[in-house]
Write a structure and sequence with these properties.
With 148 residues, this protein is of the alpha+beta class. It folds into two domains: 103 residues, no CATH class; 37 residues. The protein contains five helices and seven strands, in the order E-E-H-H-E-E-E-E-E-H-H-H.
């Protein structure tokens, strides 16, 4: 018996990961710019639980804390219809810290460093709460500060 390198459950597979976690890992094997070491670490850090049948692993989005699952198929994810599917994302561009993210957050964040993205979302949220002509000038000023 081995212990899964992601969830810690015992398993018999040859893979370092149990069947449920291996489904997610294999989606990224030889198909991505991420190293398998980065992928496995991000998944281990975000692991939440398995379904009762133990056939699917669930993970937490680093940014929102929402629990979800990865699409283990090879079809591309759509922004709206697949918003709550989990993906992998570099927390900061050109750095090695790989994290688990909701697809919608990953698409919104693109290549923005995490701290700037967080400030951007807070600024937008405040704007939408008090949308008016005066607030438009404030948001323009704040966004220019965030994005230079």
């Amino acid at each position: 018996m081995k212990r899964c390198d992601i969830c810690g459950d015992e398993h018999f597979e040859e893979s370092p990961s149990c069947e449920a976690c291996h489904k997610v890992v294999s989606k990224y094997q030889n198909k991505t710019k991420y190293s398998m070491e980065e992928v496995r670490k991000a998944l281990k850090d975000a692991y939440s639980h398995k379904s009762e049948e133990k056939k699917e692993s669930f993970f937490k989005c680093t940014y929102t804390g929402m629990v979800g699952k990865f699409n283990t198929q090879d079809e591309p994810l759509r922004t709206f219809d697949d918003a709550l599917i989990l993906t992998l994302d570099h927390k900061n561009p050109n750095r090695n810290e790989l994290v688990v993210s909701l697809n919608i957050i990953n698409k919104m964040k693109t290549d923005i460093p995490f701290d700037d993205f967080k400030n951007f979302v807070i600024t937008l949220g405040e704007y939408f709460k008090e949308e008016n002509d005066t607030n438009f000038k404030n948001i323009e000023k704040e966004l220019k500060q965030i994005f230079g």
